[in-house]
Amino acid sequence: MQRIGVFVCHCGTNIAATVDVKAVAEALGHEPGVVISQDYQYMCSESGQNLVKDAIKEHNLSGIVICSCSPRMHENTFRKAAAAAGLNPYLVEIANIREQCSWIHRDIATATEKAIILGKAAVAKVHLNTPLTSMESPVVKRALVIGGGIAGIQTALDIAEAGFDVDIVEKEATIGGKMAQIDKTFPTLDCAACILTPKMVEASQNEKIHIYAFSEVEAVKGFVGNFTVKIKRKARYVDEVKCTGCGACIEKCPMKKVPNEFNMGLDNRHAVYIPFAQAVPKIATIDPNYCMMLKNGKCGLCSKVCAAGAIDYKQQDSFIEEKYGAIVVATGFNPIKLDKYDEFSYNTCPDVVTSLELERLMNAAGPNGGTLLRPSDKSHPHTIVFVQCVGSRCSDEKGKPYCSKICCMYTAKHAMLIRDKYPDTEVYVFYIDVRTPGKNFDEFYRRAVEQYNVHYIKGMVGKVTPKSDGKIDVQASDLLSNEQLHIDADMVVLAAAIEPDKTARPLATMLTTQMDTNDFFTEAHPKLRPVESATAGIFLSGACQGPKDIPETVAQGSAAAAKAIGLLCKNSITCNPCVAHSDELMCNGCSSCEKVRPYGAITYSDKEFRMPDRTIAVRRVASVNPAVCQGCGACTVACPSGAMDLSGFSNSQIMAEVDAICK
Amino acid sequence: MEQSVTYTYYPGCTLRTKARDLDEYTRSSAAALGIALVEPDEWQCCGGAYTTARDELATKLSAVRTLNAAKERGNALVTVCYACHNVIKQTNYDISHDEDMAAKINNYMKLAQPYTGETTVYHYLELLRDVVGFDELKKAVKNPFKGKKIAAYYGCLLLRPGKKLAMDDPENPSIMEDFIRAVGGTPVIYSQRNECCGGYITMEDKAQAAKRSGAVMSSAKDMGADMMITACPLCLYNLKKNSGSDLPVYYFTELLAEALGLKDVPETAPEGKDEANG
Fold this sequence. Notes:
heterodimer, A: alpha/beta, Rossmann fold, FAD/NAD(P)-binding domain, 5 domains, five-stranded parallel beta sheet, 26% strand, globular, B: alpha/beta, four-stranded parallel beta sheet, 8 strands
């Protein structure tokens, strides 16, 4: 017979105000097997835990039920307490009478009745609990960082600093990401390139860091501590080892009319190119969509001028496979496409630009050498209108429901820089709200308004249309004075919402990590585990998890590195023992579980079975890799023969709970 | 042209009074393009303006009658006035998407067969684009408007709400510009082409309507338009009488008839044609 102890927590007034905790303790004391039932003000406190520990020893308890908050909160606390008192930690059950009871009910009688039922269910379950032992699995001491923007660079540098090998996989020809395209950074207005490029060089020179630029993650197998990743090295048509980055090939390339992605298509590059002067690695890449040699075999000039003999028109995509203990996702963001925003004439008027395009137009290394000129006629703009929240905080399917977070600040920065450099230019900013919650952020915005006389107008722009005289008519409403405005602008700058990179979703599938409806990676806990994904060994760095500015991205990059280092430091890791297992005698190899296995923990193999008539039969059966299984239980539901079961949450335990609730 | 296809044609009240030109040229150009437009035996006002109140079902009944008439004849419904098109198309969308509304309307109307949005509704422009095809239309043009800079006026009703009307992009439409190209003209893109003309506010506050229609006309003129086309009688009224502009405004069907060489020729009366309008 089990000897069960029940401990009911008041959680101050969180539970006790709505649930009659004494009545719960009294009622559960009469349940079969319960030998002690107590209540206490804060069960998670040291004295509360001691109450549990002492009771285990004094009453020789074989099972514990804690009626308290969510198991996500304190299950571990009480498991540890039980273990300290010599009881297997998996003999502890939590009945959640806070989040699922006291917080959601008002009536004391109802809430108390429900708390008792939840407690009875937990008691019924704990009767069937069995001691479980965690297994250990070794850790490969190497990390993979996916994405080489500032987030990925920071993470890689920090991991390398701790002495671990780390690889960066970057899909573009150079690392650096969006920050490399930015001119100045808010709120200090220091030069982005001056603070980023040294980090890029540091990453490339660090012997612990290996950069796979122009590469993509193709497949991920394995589990925490032991991932196997297939990396596709896209053909550059240039030998990375031989290329010195001298640029002779670029000078000679006759194909000069390729839209330059780095300058947002505002000028052209050659078919063979290095994205920008400080690119890392500084290796030329041939664009097969434009190279005449690759397209029709006519040209070959670059090959003739390359002193290093690095040009290789026959180069193919190649694949490498590497093992990693931890993976950090740092895939970053992109501004949304503005195709659906015809009211702003973005597609029809060259002088209507996005903020990132303006960034290039104002950049010393940009298409105009740092002088702000209208793209249409290269004239100096005298009136510039900024439109905030283009696609952000949008209730329809055209845009994004969230705030993109960085636009208020970069718009203030742009407005201030323009007013500073071109005092004869009037700058208007249309906003819904100005959001500046960051260190020195609001002061920065106030400076734009007060010191630089930027005209901030609360209201949205309804329509932007080019006029016959080259000006742009901006029709907007001023919500504070309740007026319709028409502004004759020379340029209009749209603060496009930001969204996760398109590669994030297929990557999430490969990594079996979760995303929200906007394709941002979901963190394991929004407050307490912000840089870990719900999948063990996968960490999140930068804007792939949500919109972020540079300081936040760097902070999160370092935090993700710290978490990855914490994992890599271990020689082996303890696995969660609440995992699925398959009863091979009952399994008929139907593969139903394969269709639902989100973590790839189930494999099938042919096994020999001795039949009752002493013959040997070969049957296909499922088996679960306990190191990979996350214990989600999906396979146990899918299994038609009942062969799959989940330790700690067995079918019989769940049914016992249901029976207790329905009694 | 090949064998003619028959459509149920709903002119609407204004086309029988103030906007006879719109009606005439629609019929004559359709006949020339091999489209038979047949009026229902009886029809009522479209409902005038689409009410956005959820329970104003009574105002939608006449639109349903028209839609059902087309259904009973087994052909698609063609409209030409912006307002009629807007009311009828929106009502059709709603009755096919809102079961509760469909049930209430059918309970009241007691039709032989309940009507639940079976009829396809075309604006005449859509018919030209999707059934005739602008390339085919171009071939049929006898007097192209060569060198003419023509501004298309969509107004607010033809394209919105975009999801229900589903004709073209409400913010950057192209159907009328494509029509202008088909009849040999050069379309003029101007900012106010899909803004309000002032609408019914002209009854209450002429100055306000004048401001709106004036903005439309001056915006078109600023971009170098020689003339403007529309398909809405109320827009035409506001643009002509209220705007204070000398830019000529025509129904698009008048241009179409002229391009097809029909304008000065007495037309052959299609079926159901009311001679009193001529």
